[in-house]
Every structure is written in C-alpha cells, then in structure tokens.
C-alpha cells in the first residue's frame, strides 16, 4: 500500500474506525481503508501500580508461554511450508504460456508498476469474464440512450454541444487515466434557411405545371446545388448492374433524372455516383414498401416519410481529402473526387408513386417491381398523356464550417501502454437518432464505466483501452476520419483494433458482423460466451450455427460503416456489428422517427437485455485483446484471399500469355506471404511468450498486417482508401478482378496497359506485406 491515511484524534471514546479512501499507484486507482485511531485519555488523578499478585501472575504466564512456544513453532513450520508450496505453485502457474483458454493468468506481479489485486496476485481470464458480466448494468444502457435521444442534435447545434458536455462530464467522473477532446473545423452541408429544395412537373418549354411538395427535413448532404430538368428513369436500386441492364435495354439515360429505391446493399453516395457515370443529371431516392415497411401502426414508415443520407463517396471532410482539417492546417484549396456534380434529394413513397405511375416506356426487368400502390413498373423516361412533360428539381443546400469535438477517455495498459484497443461511437444525429447515435453512445458509456470499475477492483490490462465519442458521423464519419488523417503516422504503430458501436441494435434476433478478417477468430470465441438476448440459456454461437454457421454472419466492411475508414484508410483491423430483427431490419434510421419508444416497441421491451448482450460481446473481445500476451489476430487470413486471385489468374493464363503478361510474380508474392504468415505462427507457438521483449516483437508484426496492405504506390490525397483488399480504386483486388473478367465478357474493352499497372501495384503491395511480416531483412524468404 503506497499511502494510508491515519487520523489521530484526542476525542473521548474508544476503538478504531475504518473509512474508505482512494489509493493511487502505478496509474491505477483503488479504494483503500482509511484508519481513524481514537485515543482514550486517563482520568485526572489516576495511578498505575504493580503489586505482587500481578507480578506472580505474569511470571506464571511466562512459564506457560514457553511450553506453548514449542507447539506453536512446530505448527508454524508446517504452515510456512504449506504456504511456500502454494505460493511456489501459483508462481509457477504465473510463468506458464498463455493460450487464451479459461486457465489463462494475468501475472500482475510481473507488470511494471502493477499492484496486487485485493484477492491475490493473479486473476484468471474466467474471473475477468465474470467480473465484466457482474459490472454491466442493463438499466444504465437504456437511461443513457434516453438522455442522448431526447431531440435532434446535429454537429454545432446547442443540443449537440449539450450532449457533448454531458458525455465529457460523465467520462471525467469515471476517473479515467486521461480524458481529453480533439477538435476540427470541418465543412458540412445543411438545408438552406432561405430557400427550400423543390420539385416540379414542367412542360416542354420548361413552364411549371405543378409543384410537388417535399419534406422540409429531408436532404442529402453534399449534393450538388442548383437546378436540373429532364425525363424520369426508374433505376431500381441504382446499382452498377442496374445501370448496365438499362443500357443493354437501350433506355435513354443521358440528361434524365433517376428515381432509385433505398437499399440494395448500396449507399446513397454509390447510387448517385453510378447515376452520374451514366450521364444522368439528378437522383431522387425513396423508401419502397418492398424494402422498408410503410405501415406506422406495425412499426413502419408513413408514406410521406423520407430517409436522409449524405452522398459523398468517401468519408471525412470532402474539402480536405486525405489530410486533417485542423484549424492551423494551411493546405491549398481542394475537394474530394467523391463529391457528386449532380443533384440528389430524398423523396417519400407518395412522391415516388406520383412520378412512377405516370411513366411510359419499356417494362421493368424481372425483380424490379416494388410495392408502390397504383404503379405498374415502367422504366421511362417519358410520361403518359398528351404533351411532353419532364421533372425539374432544385437543391439549395449550403456549406457551413463547423467546429467538431471528438471526446476521448483512456485506461492505460501496464505492459504495452502505447498499444491501443479503440472503442468508438457516433454522437451526433439529424433527428433524435435513437439507433443512429443513441445506441452506440449508450453502449460506449457502459463499456467505459464497466472497465473503469474492473480496474478499481483489480484488473490490470496489458494494453491501453481508448473510448471515443465521435462528432460529425451523419456526414460520413467526419470526426473519426479527420482524427485518423491527423494521427495516421503514429496510429499504424499503436492501434491494435477498432470496434464501432454504431447502430449495433436494429432488432434482437439475427447477428451480422462487418469486419476485417483478422478479427474473425476473436469474434467466434466471444460468441461462445454470450447468451443470446432472445433465447435464454443458449449462446449466440449456438443460434448462429443453426442459421448456417458462424462464418455466414461475417461480412466485409462497407463504405458507410463506422469501421470502414479505420481499415481502408488507416490500416487498422476494425469491426462493426448489428443485431437485426429480420432482413428488413429497423426502418427509422436516418429519419425524424428514430426514437427510443419505437425501438423499444420493436424489441418488445427487451432493449436492456439486447444492449447488455452487445456490450458484453464487444467487452469480451476488447478484454481478450487487452489481456493476452500475444494478440489473437489471424495473420493467415489473407493467404486464402490471395489464393483465390491466383486461381482466377490461372483460368486466364493463355489469354494473358498471348498478350505478353505473366501472373508468375503474383503467385510468387502470394507464396511468400503464406510462408511468412505460417512461419510467424510457428515461431510464436514455439517461443516463451512470457518474454516481454519477444512478445512485443511478435505483436508489432501482427498489429501492422492491415497497414502493410495500404498501397504505397497511390496518393493518399487522390486515393484515400488505399487498402488493396478493402479499399476503393484501380489499385484494389476487386478492380483488378473486374478488369480481368473483361477478357471473357468484352475483350475489346480490356486495356492491357491499365491491367499491367494494376497487376504491378497489387503484386508489389502483396510482396511488401510478405517481407514485412517476415520480420528482419535476413528472414525474408525470397529465393531466386
């Protein structure tokens, strides 16, 4: 004990009294007893005398004590031997290799600056899991969710600032090791206060025939502004394959305005981008009843509701692409290539029905029919009836610089404090945002509180835990991406993994996990430990297996997820999960109807239990990463992905050779990476991982794997998402595979020079990853 507070008082009364105080040592706060000693003074005039009777009694007692001493010494010897044996056993167990099972130990006495836990010197992983479950509180999750989702709280608003202050105060009250804020000035787009976005039916001369009323709350951030007029074309979900099919059918697209439905596994930004590539001048996006329930009495949208979403094909501030928007950063004026140059506006199902019911032209392909009332699926672009009619749309959104505030709190690790496990959630929302921002914030605060309590009660993480509340999430994860851009040079050396809590609860039945493949095994281990929120007594993994196997729930990261930028831009393994009710999920995200009441109704009162399950799931994964000597990340996962490319190239060997192209170097790089991953795995298996220096060397190589796959041959400003597997651009594996497929589908479109560049970029990125994973330069396995 570093300090004990002793208060000595001369007040009348007797005995010792214990009060609680706080002891700080090794960066850890613990509750310790404060001893208050009260002395009883002698009464005035009293004397102390030693008479002969008392003296005789004392001598007799001394003789008896000598006889007892022999017995006491014998018993003490046995006790000391037994104690020494047990301590030796525990010490031996503390020196064992950690394998990640229930018998794992945390050798607290070996950690620099560590102190013993109240129960003893070491804690088992099973004990830590029980501690995590003990401190999680369902009611706190729901209470925080209700506070955060009281009203709309967009970035820069008084409501948004009030929520930020409340979260900061709560984190400070947890007495973390560090609490701070990180601020950025970002350019955001909002609806104009003076002009409303509008939509008209016009005649061939452009005269306005009828104005179609739009919801004043709905808009697409980062849309181009101005006016556009054209015919209307129904484009289904606005996917690339949808536009390819329209071209094949000969539908006139150039100069038209697209009507696209929400969904189809593509974001608003991707729908607008595909329309722009096809030559359209505007996009109207609506929720179709086939994809989003429309009956508000059955937890659906009403037919006049709109869904708002940004349309920047990227993340972060689009006017500082690839570099941070700190106020002192004086970069030249530029903008993201992902900003659209055509108009975009959300519309309701009623407005879409009014437009699509009047179209003429070819019938829709099979599977394109939605469920709008009174609508026969016709593609357009013309209108039925006399005279030529078209649609005119006007978007008047305005740009505004806004001060964003990210809020951080951290618990320092005791062995590798410079390695971080990061847990984050979006804080802002255009509407109340119960699911959009409230759920993630509530889970974040509960995890921070739980881990803080665990540290005060004897848990000493090897690595640091970082809890972050992000600002500007509704505009494309602006706050998170700007932070990544600002600290990219250090994060690839320090960030172990990132867990996004955004939109984690959309139901309580089906689990979907969007993740870097390095984290897949970690997820499987956690799923075994957590009870399914809807099926008492059964683990989540048992339900997943009945639904076709746990790997079926693991999906690649997607552009609009809160985790995407961490991997695709920052090279950090990242994960985001969703609990959903069914395939259609919760319909109110990105609307003004996203309230706690509707979410609770969907879950039939189980919001607390679902929140607890998700919090426990993420908490167990973070606990594992912060506890194990060797990071439990699967570095062999990309070997299979590279092998699939090799198989695809093999199928085109003759065609490539006829053009003087050889896939041999790709095969070589793939082999080098596979061997490096296997060799690292074997080296760890055969090493004493209690050796802190050796463990750190291995962990450094493991945690940089994602960073190795950020292509160093493309500009971070022009191509921010440089990851060759998860990124976007011509350097990626998906772009290479799409181009390669042209050898069969459209050989005349195959560009040999472009393919040579793609093949070279991918090959050398893969080879660089293999070399880095091998360790030192003398370990590189690259035989002639």
Question: How much helix is in the residues?
Answer: 25-40%
Overall domain count: 3
The poorly predicted ranges are 1-71, 85-121
Q: Name the average pLDDT.
A: 83
**How many individual helices?**
22
Distance from first to last alpha carbon: 61 Å
What labels would you give this structure?
alpha/beta, Aminopeptidase, Transcription Elongation Factor S-II, Chain A, four-stranded antiparallel beta sheet, globular
Q: Can you put this structure into words, describing what you see?
A:
The protein has 784 residues and is α/β, with parallel strands linked by helices. The longest helix is centred in the first third of the chain and has 43 residues, at 52-94. Mean pLDDT is 83; it is low at 1-71 and 85-121. It folds into 3 domains: 139-186 and 402-627, Zn peptidases (Aminopeptidase, 3-Layer(aba) Sandwich); 198-396, Glucose Oxidase, domain 1; 637-779, Transcription Elongation Factor S-II, Chain A. It starts with 5 loop residues before the first strand and ends in a 10-residue tail after the last helix. One of its GO terms (cellular component) is external side of plasma membrane. It is found in: Cell membrane; Melanosome.
In short:
With 784 residues, the protein is α/β, with parallel strands linked by helices.
Topology:
Layout: E1 6-9, E2 16-25, E3 28-38, H1 52-94, E4 105-107, E5 122-124, H2 125-135, H3 138-148, H4 158-173, E6 178-190, E7 198-202, E8 208-212, E9 226-230, E10 232-234, H5 240-248, E11 257-261, H6 268-277, E12 282-286, E13 343-346, H7 349-356, E14 359-363, E15 378-383, E16 390-395, E17 398-411, E18 416-426, H8 434-456, E19 463-470, H9 478-486, H10 488-494, E20 495-500, E21 505-506, E22 510-515, H11 520-527, H12 540-546, E23 554-555, H13 564-568, E24 574-580, H14 596-602, H15 607-627, H16 637-651, H17 653-658, H18 664-685, H19 692-703, H20 705-708, H21 733-745, H22 752-774
Parallel strand pairs: 1-3, 10-11, 11-12, 12-13, 18-19, 18-20, 20-24, 21-24, 22-23
Antiparallel strand pairs: 2-3, 4-5, 6-17, 7-8, 7-16, 9-16, 14-15, 17-19, 22-24
Helix pairs in contact: 2-8, 2-15, 3-8, 3-15, 8-15, 11-15, 16-18, 18-22, 21-22
Domain Peptidase M28: 406-586
Family: Belongs to the peptidase M28 family. M28B subfamily.
Domain Transferrin receptor-like dimerisation: 664-773
């Amino acid at each position: 004990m570093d300090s004990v507070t002793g208060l000595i008082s001369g007040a009348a009364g007797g005995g010792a009294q214990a009060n609680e105080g706080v002891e700080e040592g090794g960066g850890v706060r613990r509750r310790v007893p404060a001893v208050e000693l009260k002395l009883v003074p002698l009464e005035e005039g009293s004397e102390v005398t030693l008479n002969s009777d008392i003296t005789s009694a004392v001598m007799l007692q001394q003789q008896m004590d000598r006889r007892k001493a022999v017995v006491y010494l014998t018993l003490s010897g046995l006790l000391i031997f037994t104690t020494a044996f047990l301590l030796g056993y525990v010490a031996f167990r503390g020196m064992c290799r950690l394998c990640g099972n229930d018998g794992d130990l945390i050798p607290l006495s070996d950690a620099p600056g560590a102190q013993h836990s109240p129960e003893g010197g070491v804690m088992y992983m099973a004990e830590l899991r029980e501690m995590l479950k003990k401190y999680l509180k369902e009611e706190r999750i729901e209470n925080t969710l209700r506070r955060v989702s009281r009203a709309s709280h967009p970035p820069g608003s008084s409501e948004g600032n009030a929520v930020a202050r409340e979260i900061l105060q709560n984190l400070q009250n947890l007495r973390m090791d560090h609490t701070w804020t990180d601020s950025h000035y970002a350019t955001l787009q909002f609806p104009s206060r003076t002009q409303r976005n509008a939509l008209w039916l016009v005649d061939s001369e452009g005269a306005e025939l009828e104005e179609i009323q739009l919801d004043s709350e709905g808009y697409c951030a980062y849309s181009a502004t101005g006016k556009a007029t054209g015919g209307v074309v129904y484009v289904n979900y606005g996917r690339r394959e949808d536009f390819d099919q329209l071209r094949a059918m000969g539908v006139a697209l150039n100069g038209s305005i697209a009507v696209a439905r929400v969904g189809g596994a593509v974001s608003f930004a991707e729908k607008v981008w595909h329309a722009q590539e096809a030559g359209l001048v505007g996009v109207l996006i609506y929720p179709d009843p086939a994809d989003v329930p429309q009956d508000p009495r059955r937890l659906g949208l009403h037919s006049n509701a709109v869904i708002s979403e940004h349309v920047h094909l990227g993340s972060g501030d689009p006017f500082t692409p690839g570099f941070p928007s700190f106020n002192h950063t004086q970069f030249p004026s530029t903008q993201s290539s992902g900003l659209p140059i055509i108009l975009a506006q959300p519309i309701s199902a009623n407005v879409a029905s009014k437009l699509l019911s009047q179209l003429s032209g070819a019938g829709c392909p099979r599977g394109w029919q939605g469920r709008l009332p009174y609508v026969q699926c016709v593609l357009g672009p013309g209108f039925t009836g006399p005279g030529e009619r078209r649609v005119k749309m006007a978007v008047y959104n305005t740009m505004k610089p806004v001060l964003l505030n990210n809020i951080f709190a951290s618990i320092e690790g005791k062995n590798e404090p410079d390695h971080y496990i990061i847990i984050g959630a979006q804080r802002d929302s255009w509407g109340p945002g119960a699911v959009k921002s409230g759920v993630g914030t509530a889970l974040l605060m509960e995890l921070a509180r739980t881990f803080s309590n665990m540290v005060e009660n004897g848990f000493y993480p090897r690595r640091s835990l970082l809890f972050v509340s992000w600002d500007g999430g509704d505009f494309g994860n602006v706050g998170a991406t700007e932070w990544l851009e600002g600290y990219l040079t250090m994060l690839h050396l320090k960030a172990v993994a990132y867990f996004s809590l955004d939109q984690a609860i959309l139901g309580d039945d089906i689990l979907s996990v969007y993740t870097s493949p390095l984290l897949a095994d970690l997820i499987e281990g956690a799923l075994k430990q957590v009870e399914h929120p809807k099926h008492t007594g059964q683990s989540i993994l048992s339900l997943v297996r009945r639904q076709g196997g746990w790997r079926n729930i693991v999906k690649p990261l997607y552009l609009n997820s809160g985790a995407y930028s961490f991997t695709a831009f920052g090279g950090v393994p990242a994960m985001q999960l969703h609990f959903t009710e069914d395939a259609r999920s919760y319909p109110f995200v990105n609307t003004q109807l996203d309230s706690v009441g509707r979410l609770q109704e969907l879950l039939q009162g189980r919001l607390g239990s679902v929140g607890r399950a998700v919090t426990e799931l993420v908490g167990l994964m973070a606990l594992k990463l912060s506890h194990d000597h060797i990071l439990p990340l699967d570095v062999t996962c990309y070997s299979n992905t590279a092998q699939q490319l090799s198989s695809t190239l093999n199928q085109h060997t003759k065609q490539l050779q006829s053009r003087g192209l050889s896939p041999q170097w790709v095969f070589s790089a793939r082999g080098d990476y596979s061997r490096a991953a296997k060799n690292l795995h074997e080296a760890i298996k055969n090493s004493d991982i209690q050796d802190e220096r050796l463990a750190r060397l291995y962990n450094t190589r493991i945690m940089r794997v994602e960073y190795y796959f950020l292509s160093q041959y493309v500009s971070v400003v022009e191509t921010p998402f440089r990851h060759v597997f998860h990124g976007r651009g011509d350097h990626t594996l998906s772009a290479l595979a799409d181009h390669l497929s042209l050898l069969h589908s459209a050989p005349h479109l195959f560009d040999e020079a472009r393919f040579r560049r793609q093949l070279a970029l991918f090959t050398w990125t893969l080879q660089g990853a293999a070399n880095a994973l091998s360790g030192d330069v003398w370990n590189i396995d690259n035989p002639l």
